[in-house]
Amino acid sequence: MRDTNLKIAIQKSGRLSQASIDLLRKCDIGFDNGLGKLRSVAHNFPLEILFLRDDDIPQYIEDGVADIGIVGENLLAENESNINELEKLGFGRCRLALAVPKSFEYRTIQDLAGRRIATSYPGILGRFLESNSVTSDIHTISGSVEIAPGIGLADAICDLVSSGNTLFTNGLTEVETVMESEAVLISNGNTEGRLQIILDSLLFRIRSVLAATQNKYILLNAPNEKLDAIERLLPGMKSPTVMPLATSGWSSVHSVINDDEHWNVVEKLKAAGAEGILVIAIEQMIR
Ligand code: PRP
Ligand code: ZN
């Protein structure tokens, strides 16, 4: 049944590789990703994983070499192709930015007028410059953009910045943010029949994993007279679970809370009389 596996393309090596692999593993998809491997077939799910250069993934998906893929939104914006964004994945956050050598006395974007800018994102950069009424000379290169100013190929660059290490190592300073980006799951919209069923099942798992990482499970003990105030702080998936403790007059309360606000809620719970508060990671959350 090898030919009816769903094919997913992920970055071979780079910013998104490990997080993409981790996401599939959290979905309980077992596969081998030995170094240098270009493709791998999952042993417990009808999925084939292709390890490719991220910049090539949108094209491969459009051509049907892969059905779905994980790339940065930046690549989607650059390609403007017939590709659907299925889900934002919450990792790989970065920005596409303009950067100049330290010696460049940059004040405003007008300083880039008539200058040479090296980038792998001519489409996005062109639109950005146009919206700022600046005309520059865009040099499209496919990789190692950050070395272009150092070798006299360009006055500035427009490239992805995540930790900022690449810019720092190459003596470049970030001057403008062109777009913010994060990893997204994309498809070519051509999946039907069995492939669509597999995709729906994978999406169900991915959404359960994403919901889990956005939430925490919380347990606490409280004297019964404080329960009303505590329950008001805890919406839960439906409502909190309240169970009596062996010690009379006390209860144990369980609920699910949003990860972003959990410190805030924990402080309020403590102030409302909660004791022995435990906050636990959730593996999967099925809605
Ligand atoms: C991007 C970009 C830089 C690096 C920046 O590469 O081209 O090389 O990430 O990250 P940093 O700010 O953490 O140093 P990408 O992951 O797209 O790989 P690629 O250039 O090989 O396509
Ligand atoms: Zn890339």
Detailed description of the structure:
The chain is of the alpha/beta class. The protein has 3 domains: 6-91 and 183-212, D-Maltodextrin-Binding Protein, domain 2, CATH 3.40.190.10; 94-181, Periplasmic binding protein-like II (D-Maltodextrin-Binding Protein, domain 2); 215-281, Alpha-Beta Plaits (2-Layer Sandwich). Helices cover 26% and strands 32% of the residues. The protein has 8 helices and 15 strands. The chain has helices at 17-26, 57-62, 73-79, 122-131, 165-169, 194-213, 227-233, 262-271, and strands at 6-11, 39-41, 47-52, 68-72, 84-88, 94-101, 116-119, 137-140, 156-161, 172-181, 183-187, 215-223, 241-244, 250-258, 275-281. It has a 6-stranded mixed β-sheet. A hairpin with a 5-residue loop joins strand 13 and strand 14. The radius of gyration is 24 Å and the shape is globular. The protein starts with 5 loop residues before the first strand and ends in a 6-residue tail after the last strand. The mean pLDDT is 94.
Count of separate DSSP helical elements: 8
CATH fold category name of the largest domain: D-Maltodextrin-Binding Protein, domain 2
Q: What is the percent of helical residues?
A: 25-40%
Low-pLDDT stretches are none
The CATH superfamily label of the largest domain reads: Periplasmic binding protein-like II
What Rg is obtained from the alpha carbons, in whole angstroms?
A: 24 Å
Counting DSSP E segments of at least 2 residues, the number of strands comes to 15
Beta content: 25-35%
